[in-house]
Amino acid sequence: MSERTQYAPGPASGAQVEKGGEKWTLILTRELRHPPEKVWQALTDPAQLREWAPFEADGNLSAIGSTVRLTWAGTGNVTETRVTLADEPWALEYQDLRWELDPLGGGTRLTLWHAIDRRFIAWGAAGWHISFDVLDRLLAGEPIGRIAGADVLKFADWRRLVAEYARQFGAEMPG
Question: Domains in the chain, start-ordered, CATH in brackets?
Fold first, then answer.
């Protein structure tokens, strides 16, 4: 059995939601075993993004003002985005995503803010949860390949994870 077929996401954790006006934000935090510089490369380099992120980028995301086309896995949706913040290796912002990297011992506390439609918050949380798992394995030198779009639906644990986040957010989501 391959690492990918043996992969199962852990329980829903490290996520919260905020509402500011009409805008909803999904906030996810994950502690990674890798230094911020290594995580930064995985967040900005197109080759590494292809291995773990739910999108492909046609250019590097490491410079303010860069314009990059993102192709979202499973949907074929292409969006053009401009990098509005790139403070290597601490903060990155483009489209509806903001990333912060904080040193944590020899590793990194990675926090993602994702402006998202309220209807898709549990799905988004589950998708990013899986993407972060795949990212951690990639950085550890044990890649299992991106699990996004239609691929994510093949995992029995996907529905469990979505349901767990939905229950969590049902009690926590602001009205």
Answer: 15-172 (3.30.530.20)
